[in-house]
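Work Package 4 report. The design task specified in the project plan requires that, given a folded chain encoded as structure tokens, an amino acid be chosen for each position. We show below one input record used in the internal validation round.
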């Protein structure tokens, strides 16, 4: 399920004067800014409204009449944050919903997607089985190696390898492209970057990464990687190495040197002009 479809699902249940209504209205007002900026603004509004110390364990202090609103508000922010802290908060409120007999198929599906986004596949599979959610059973992933820009490489037919995104050559330069096999802008950009001679300068440094999300697009990633073995798509793994890089939109191109972010650009208009700042930076370093 995509970010927009999950947000639409949440927006459909807004109640008057609710925290979720406040966040949903703020999100709509911020659609003209980057997803990263929306995430930060929504997080600030939420944290100014909720005592997060109460969102632990079974969330016993949450009243029945506010549980659904707090769940929807917490899930909305967690969709953007995609980290264990926010997913744990959502799990806590979900337990309050269940305890009060309020959790339904919509809540199960939203929580499942959030668990997928932080690669807690075992918990997601348990939820899927318990409530017969119409999503596939997820595979067992290797433990994250915890270093650098952790990614999952899909090898063989059903095999996975956890590794740090490699750096080619002695310069220490990487161009990490946040892309998605279902994103038209991403695929059009990659078609040009991998085939147009004027973009040959980029290819020796290019690494493709699909950001963690609420679905597991394994088949599409494997299909791309089989067709482009020199430029496979990796799945973003958990780990602190990603903290400084925006991953909420596609395509985004991050130029790093020895693991340090130098410059980022985003978007693709068809002429490659968005990548000129990266090219100039590489020319200066050469």
């Amino acid at each position: 399920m995509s970010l927009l479809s999950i947000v639409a699902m949440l927006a459909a249940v807004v109640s008057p004067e609710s925290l979720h209504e406040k966040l949903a209205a703020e999100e709509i007002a911020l659609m003209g800014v980057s997803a990263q900026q929306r995430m930060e603004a929504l997080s600030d509004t939420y944290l100014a409204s909720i005592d997060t110390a109460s969102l632990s364990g079974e969330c016993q202090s949450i009243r029945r009449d506010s549980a659904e609103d707090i769940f929807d508000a917490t899930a909305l922010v967690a969709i953007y944050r995609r980290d264990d802290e926010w997913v744990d908060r959502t799990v806590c409120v979900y337990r309050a919903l269940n305890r009060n007999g309020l959790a339904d198929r919509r809540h199960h599906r939203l929580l499942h997607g959030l668990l997928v986004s932080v690669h807690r596949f075992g918990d997601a599979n348990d939820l899927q089985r318990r409530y017969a959610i119409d999503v596939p059973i997820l595979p067992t992933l290797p433990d994250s190696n915890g270093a650098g820009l952790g990614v999952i490489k899909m090898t063989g037919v059903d095999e996975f390898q956890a590794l740090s995104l490699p750096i080619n050559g002695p310069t220490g330069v990487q161009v990490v492209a946040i892309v998605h096999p279902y994103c038209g802008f991403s695929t059009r950009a990659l078609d040009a970057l991998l085939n147009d001679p004027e973009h040959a300068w980029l290819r020796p440094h290019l690494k493709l990464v699909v950001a963690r999300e609420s679905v597991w697009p394994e088949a599409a990633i494997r299909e791309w990687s089989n067709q482009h073995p020199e430029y496979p798509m990796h799945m973003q793994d958990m780990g602190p190495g990603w903290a400084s890089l925006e991953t909420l939109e596609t395509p985004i191109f991050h130029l790093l040197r020895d693991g340090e972010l130098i410059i980022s650009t985003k978007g693709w208009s068809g002429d490659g002009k968005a990548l000129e700042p990266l090219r100039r930076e590489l020319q200066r370093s050469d």
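The chain has two domains: 3-131, 150-285. Validation will be extended to a larger panel in the next phase.
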